[in-house]
């Protein structure tokens, strides 16, 4: 390849650092192919060797290796056929780059884009791919969205996945490991450009009333173009999301709402949130690029909390390599009042074990984000139950320099959270591929 870099190179971390730093294996070399021909030669050589290697995009699944990292960051071009409405996207293009491109070439159409703007396209697809459009068009990896891919196979041969149906099937949420994807073909769908979305912050003390309202709203089966996610925001972190924090500000619950049917419809269906006492409305009307921009606030702020100093960023890419992180995902058909309350209570009790872990951890309720695969479960490698609706996600983190004891606490929390929150209903939940942790999840048992 044109670029072979070692740890002394200034760009080495960009091409090799895992998101969760505890998974760092300190490879001595990174290969950066610039062409499919170069990649083919590398893949053929590595698979015939005894070297430990990994293929890496943007590193959010924390890939690392003892010997060699193959960085795919050169494969990021985007092309578009405006007649067929098909986007051809390089493996390491980010979703923000894709929606920015679509805004320029065909603003009335959009591909389903992951909610996090800085993650790579291929990694999302290989892990199922959830988006703001998932309740309408299914997972990004579903056949209605993901049409084909160029793949370098283990022996170095290059094929379009559609030439080998089993290969294409495995790429639809199979988690990777089935060759190296260089580009993907995605179908664009007609989509509104006047989406109403943004944050509504509500005092956390209103949670008892909100729990019933959340449950009632979710059971009402809103339009597929309507969904939202919810997370907790301690008062000392409000300055990271609000341009001005009022005196006497309280711990908050953040509702990040989304309605592609427009502002009036959105304000009507989310009236129950907007009219809560003390609600702060930070919603606006925008297109898909604007939606992803909301998750990409390019600023950093140091927040001091007694003996703790926490660096907060609105751009998740800035956190790469700064924390030790484990996930506890729970994809469920229903989240009743008890489960929501139990999840919040579990988060609150983290502070009793380690306050710094609590400050760096999150509980996120992604409501109304699933639908069954369009075309049938047999068409995708991650079939998922047709009853799934919501994703409850715990992200447990400690500082990158955290102790072994803190790592043990992360593991303990990740293993205990699902059972304590869901109880006997855990057996009906599923683990989405993006949240799979082979260290403690039963990989063969994943549905």
TrEMBL record:
What PROSITE patterns does its record include?
A: FAD_PCMH
Name of the molecule in the record: Cysteine desulfurase
Query: Which Pfam families does the entry link to?
Result: FAD_binding_4
Q: Mind listing the UniProt keywords for this protein, alphabetically? A: FAD, Flavoprotein, Oxidoreductase
Cofactors demanded by this protein? FAD
TM ranges are: none
Q: List, alphabetically, the InterPro entries matched.
A: FAD-bd_PCMH (IPR016166), FAD-bd_PCMH-like_sf (IPR036318), FAD-bd_PCMH_sub2 (IPR016169), FAD-linked_Oxidoreductase (IPR050416), Oxid_FAD_bind_N (IPR006094)
The record's region (Disordered) falls at: 420-447
**Basic and acidic residues: bias regions:** 438-447
Which stretches make up the FAD-binding PCMH-type domain?
23-191
UniProt family annotation: Belongs to the oxygen-dependent FAD-linked oxidoreductase family.
Q: Which GO terms describe its molecular function?
A: FAD binding; oxidoreductase activity
For the keyword Repeat, the answer is no
